[in-house]
Amino acid sequence: MCRLMLLCAVAALLLAAGRAIPPPEEAARMARFVLHNCDWGALATLSAQEGLRGRPFANVFSLSDGPPGPFRGSGVPYLYLTDMEISVQDLKINSNASLTVSLAQTPYCKKHKYDPQNPLCAHIIFCGSIVKVS
């Protein structure tokens, strides 16, 4: 019984360590932390739609960076999209996009009484091209 309790205590410590927010000066670790702890993000494309062509267009999507739990994420955002989605139609014309994700959607900022616009309530913006994967 004592060994089981010790293993549980070690597991709890590892889980707590995995959830600790990285120091702000470690930008890459912070970005992975924010991405892994968020369930959705705002994907901005350049619209290809009539009347909006060439203008920024943002849409909210569920996302994942891998299985839930500490030490399980890849740091690479994955979005489940359909060809019927307006943003996907935009991406077929121009694959450049940005993805914004904020800790404001997690309990972290509320727990620390941070306004969502406070820099301590970290948000990240990924910029690049969206690539279809199977």
TrEMBL record:
GO CC, any one term: cytoplasm
Listed InterPro entries: CREG_beta-barrel, Split_barrel_FMN-bd
Pfam families listed in its UniProt record: CREG_beta-barrel
Secretion signal span: 1-20
Transmembrane segments: none
Top-level division of the source organism's lineage: Eukaryota
Stretches assigned to the CREG-like beta-barrel domain: 22-133
Keywords: Signal
Name of the protein in question: CREG1 protein
Gene: Creg1
